[in-house]
Amino acid sequence: MSSTMHMHGGIGESIKRKEDARFLRGKGNYLDDFVLPNMLHMAILRSPHAHARIKSVDTKAASAKPGVIAVVTGELMAQHKLAWMPTLSGDTQAVLATDKVRFQGQEVAAVIAETKYQAEDARDAIEIEYDILPAVTNPDGAKAPGAALIRDEKEGQKDNHIYHWESGDQATTQAAFAKAHKVVRLHTFYPRCHPAPLETCGCIADVNGVTGKATIYMTSQAPHAIRTVFALVTGLPEQQIRIISPDIGGGFGNKVPVYPGYVVATAASLLIGRPVKWVEDRSENLISTGFARDFHMTGDLAVDKNGKMLALRVHLDSDNGAFFSDAQPSKFKAGLFHIVTGSYDIPTAHVTADGYYTNKAPGGVAYRCSFRVTEASYLIERLVSNAAFELGMDQAEFRKWNFIQPEQFPYTSATGWVYDSGDYPKAMDVALKQLGYDDLKKDVEVRRKKGEVTGIGIASFTEVVGAGHGAEFDILGLRMFDSAELRVHPTGKALLRMGVKSQGQGHETTFAQIVAEELGIPAQDVLVEEGDTDTAPYGLGTYASRSTPVAGAATAMVSRQLREKARKLAAHLLEANEEDLVWERGKFYVKGSPEKSKTIQEAAFAAYTNLPEGMQAGLEGVHYYDPPNMTYPFGTYAVVVDVDKGTGQVKVKRMVAVDDCGVRINPMIVEGQIQGGLTEGFGIAFMELITFDNEGNCIGSNFMDYLLPTAWETPKFEIGQTVTPSPHHPLGAKGVGESATVGSPAAYVNAVIDALSPYGITNIDMPVTSDKVWAALRSKGVTE
Question: Could you tell me which residues come within 8 angstroms of residue 139 by beta carbon, excluding any fewer than 6 positions away?
Fold first, then answer.
């Protein structure tokens, strides 16, 4: 690496994260750090029941409590036409319940008081009389004859069914299955889990009674989209709404939706004329905000006598909770699940999906993945491993035999995706070599003969990220472009404003490195700002692994836009023709005379002081990037486990993760993202679970029940990579961070199944706990 490259901090350099200087010193600026003059506090009363009709609401005792300014009920919100709000999936959701409650933890009333503690005390004094109704807690219950109707307020809603959605070709798929030598079936459940960000959700609403300006500080991953939704819900003019997303302590999709607390706090500030602050506690976050997964999936894989895949047939039932409020593109009701053909050259496929209302919290979010891609990857990788077991083929060789080959790209999948680039065999080979696969297989056989339970699991995933091209991808009609506005000051320092919003991904460093690469302005001289809708260009935000593929591309494009103007300025300063100038990062020089040059800083100064006649002053621009296609990061993960026959405990001995995310802008940040994703995948595979009893009580509403992995449980990760650039992305980048959570759960579970397969055990649902493994072994007569 040259000293010039190191000085600029361009693409490919592992420079330290710029934002960490303030975070490590405790100088981050999070929502709870804000204290506004004359600020009030809000506490929300939530339903203890999953399904119950509200008979009466008595707020007299609460209103009489010290410090109480107002008690807000659904009836009061209805008087202002704010009892219901639109969801990101085009449904409606209750802000505060008026007729009945539809999940445990649903918002019923709110108290506004001088202090947080006064608000909470008064909240507990509100008396609600309920008439308890039968609860529906899964899709099977939702579609059962005589099931309680959850959304009885919706005109024309006769049952609990939300949508039916299909992808692929049913006729050709059926024909292929008719010719199959073998059909392998897997029914699996990807259970509900929760993003559980370190910082919970909250807001401070400050509506100025004189100007009418609503300034809302909010833990939002998508501030511009939230502003538009607020304008639609409240009727406030959009130019009078300012959303400020400060530093955010983790999001993982959980901070994309509009939550009722945001609307109630804003309405209260508008009516009272004082700022209102609301921050949920941990149990509120786990019990009521956007969940992930909860897909019941059945897959059938047709193969010929040589082990070639002929067709894939998949059906899923989606548990969407009480309101259909998934944060995903409008066109795709089950998200991007139809990427389920994965890395394989499957000639035909047919995917069907049905969504159902249940008495559970709403809001399926892209928890560290693109929209529902994790569920798709899990199903196909579990199914492919089971097919290899049933066919008696090595699981790695079976995959390689059916991979899409490098020369087939761009490749159109059976469900219509156009994969941009890939080299799946190479990623597999790198992972297997790093693992020592051939020697490990021999070791496994030796140990099994001694009665030990051990196994190797593989998952070769393809993710689809970077949503997306506006003709296909929108949320509530908002096209999913993203934006970058770049301003180079006279002294050559730069300000970059983005339409996305970091929650820990390192945007302030990564995007500055793109500018450094494209313009030669050192990364430390580029200030990156995000999260303020009054200053940032309009964008759809950060979630579903779209920041680098979309906003990163916008940054590259606007930088190139400014570079072309700088070329004209340099030509003017050098008294040369533009065509005679050569660009070398950071400067222009005259072809054949490198000593005749002007730096980007000199060109920037000229933009304000020494312009060619007729040129507009300044060196700034904005670019709204509409991606022509998605990007398709991929990889192979391999896991080795030991299982204790006596206790069922699973011990992960090795975890090798080989990712291909195209060009890596900051390799250190990328590796950190992968490490985090692998940890979350480990937690989902073995620990994390949100479940419900028959009455709809949420089990997993605190960190005693909802288990997150710590350094104690988390295994060591061995990281590898291949690099296959995206041909249509201006930087060749594909995006990363989500892939590790997408690919790793199947690898972990496949390792357990490989260990248990000699005993005839070929399926076990996540989380793979010791009691499940113990019971499975005992069911086959296996003892210590």
Answer: 296, 317, 318, 319, 354, 356, 358
Tell me which DSSP letter residue 666 carries: S
Nearest to 113 by CA among 72, 78, 83: 72
Instruction: Look at residues 605, 606, 576, 610 and name the one whose alpha carbon lies nearest to residue 593.
Output: 576
List pLDDT tens digits, range 703-725.
999 999 999 999 999 999 999 99
CB 328 within 8 A of CB 144: no
Is residue 297 helix, strand or coil? Answer: strand
**Dihedrals phi, psi of 9, to nearest 5 degrees:** 70, 45
Closest listed residue to residue 394, CA positions, set 450, 340, 458, 303? 458
pTM (2 d.p.): 0.97
Give the burial string for 583-619 (b: 16+ CB within 10 Å, else e): bebbbbbbeeeeeebbbbbbbbbbbeeeeeeeeeebb
CA distance 554 to 389: 46
How high is the mean pLDDT of the chain? 96
DSSP-derived secondary structure letter, 340: G
pLDDT bin (cut points 50, 70, 90) of residue 22 is very high
Q: Which residues are catalytic?
A: 221, 368-369, 738
Hey, CA dihedral for 543, 549, 550, 551, is it positive or negative?
A: positive
Whole-number Å distance between alpha carbons of 555 and 416: 29
632 backbone dihedrals φ, ψ, rounded to 5°? -135, 75
518 within 8 A of 557, measured Cβ to Cβ: no
Token pair for 214: 């609503």
Half-sphere exposure of 603 (CA within 13 A, CB side): 28
